[in-house]
Amino acid sequence: MKNTGRNRLPPVGDHIVSLTLNLSIIAVMYVVLAGVAASLTRVVFSRFNETWSKGTLGYQLADISLELSFLVVVSFWITYLVHFLVPVLPVDARLEQFIELYGGRMAFAYAVFLFVSDLKEKLLFVYDRITGDDDVPPSRAAKTKGY
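^ that's the sequence the OP posted. Answer follows.
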């Protein structure tokens, strides 16, 4: 497949080193910022524990919805602000979008959901509650029973 036409990728040419360093720097920066976002959710929202699991389904759904909304809003503003920092090192203007898209946003999305483990547990708990799924994998069952 030739690299031609409307969706042609820009050549990296002399930008290989600065492009690679930019990708690494932005990924690390986004992971740190994802940790900050996750820490904020721990401060603002209820933890997944026995008290939370005994709450009403309405309370649980509202809590999850607010936490997801909070994460989306914080993620938007973090991404918006980081956009002004890209690129850290000079590269061709046509390559700038690739730095943030592949070096940053992918790492950020992964890190946010890695660090926000309570949200994952809440989602799985409510999913099991709604579907009546008693066939929970042993690793998850042990976590939910042990809180």
